[in-house]
Design brief:
245 residues; alpha/beta; 9-stranded mixed beta sheet; 8 helices; 9 strands
Length: 245
C-alpha cells in the first residue's frame, strides 16, 4: 500500500497526496460508494495500476505554487514514505502539513501540523466490531498527537441503529476532556451498498448536533446524499482539483 496520485487545487493553493489501503475494515465506509461494491475489507477502491516513487512525488510537489500539503487515503499513515514526505514538505519547502483525514491509528507524527481524525464509536465492543481494532490505543494516539502540538479536528459518522446518539455524545464528551475548543463535525451516514442502515433524518442530525454542543464549543454537522459525495466539486471549490501525477 502506498501513494498513487497527487491532486492540485490552484484556487486554494494546496496539493493532496492520496494513499491506497486502510488499517480498519469498516463495512459502512463511504469509499465503497465510489467502487459501487462491498469490496475487500479496508480496500474499497480498485487497486491502483501503479504507485508513485517518493522522488517523483517530491519533484512534483517542489514545482507547485502551494502553501499547504495534504495527505489522504484510505488511511495515509500506512504509507512507508509518509514521514519523509512530511519532513520534505516542512524542512525543505516550508509548507503547512495536514492529514486530510485519518483514523488516528498512525498518530502522532513528526513534521505534521494538523489532522482531521475520524473516530468510529465510543463503546469498546462496537468499536472492535466496526473497525477490527481496540478503541483505547486509538484514543491514546490521538491524545499523544494533541499534546505534541498537532492541531486536531475530530469527526464521527452518525449511523442510526449502529453508531447511535449515545456513541456520538460519548465521543464528544471524550474530545471535550482533551480540549472543549477542538472542532467536532458529525457526518450523517451515507447508505453503502450491502448495508442495512438508513441515513439519519434532518431532525436526527439536529438532535445529534445538540448532544455535541453539550460538551464542545465548535460543533457542526453535514448530511450528504450519495450523489453529493460523488460530485463534491460542484458544491465546494475545495474539491475542485485536478490530477497532476
Amino acid at each position: 500500500m502506498a501513494f498513487y496520485k497527487i491532486t492540485y487545487n490552484q484556487q486554494h493553493g494546496f496539493a493532496t497526496i492520496h494513499n491506497y489501503g486502510c488499517t480498519f475494515h469498516c463495512p459502512t465506509c463511504s469509499y465503497k460508494l465510489r467502487s459501487g461494491a462491498e469490496g475487500t475489507p479496508g480496500l474499497a477502491f480498485p487497486k491502483p495500476e501503479r504507485y508513485l516513487k517518493t522522488q517523483d512525488i517530491k519533484e512534483t510537489i517542489r514545482r507547485l505554487p502551494i502553501k499547504s500539503l495534504n495527505f489522504m487515503g484510505g488511511e495515509p499513515t500506512i504509507a512507508k514514505d509518509l514521514v519523509e514526505l512530511l519532513r520534505f514538505a516542512k524542512e525543505e519547502l516550508g509548507l503547512i502539513t495536514r492529514l486530510g483525514h485519518t483514523n488516528g491509528s498512525g498518530l502522532p507524527l513528526p513534521f505534521l501540523d494538523g489532522a482531521n481524525v475520524g473516530l468510529k464509536a465510543w463503546n469498546m465492543d462496537l468499536h472492535r466490531k466496526i473497525t477490527g481494532q481496540d478503541r483505547d490505543p486509538i484514543l491514546k494516539k490521538v491524545t499523544d498527537a494533541y499534546w505534541k502540538g498537532t492541531t486536531l479536528k475530530i469527526n464521527i459518522v452518525y449511523i442510526p441503529g449502529l453508531v447511535d446518539l449515545d456513541q456520538v455524545e460519548g465521543i464528544a464528551a471524550w474530545v471535550a476532556s482533551l480540549d472543549k475548543n477542538i472542532p467536532f463535525n458529525i457526518m450523517g451516514y451515507i447508505p453503502v451498498p450491502g448495508q442495512p442502515y438508513l441515513q439519519p433524518t434532518t431532525e436526527q442530525m439536529k438532535e445529534a448536533e445538540g448532544l455535541g454542543k453539550r460538551h464542545l464549543q465548535y460543533v457542526s454537522s453535514s448530511r450528504l446524499s450519495p450523489d453529493n459525495v460523488l460530485h463534491l466539486a460542484e458544491k465546494d471549490y475545495r474539491f475542485a482539483v485536478r490530477r497532476i501525477l
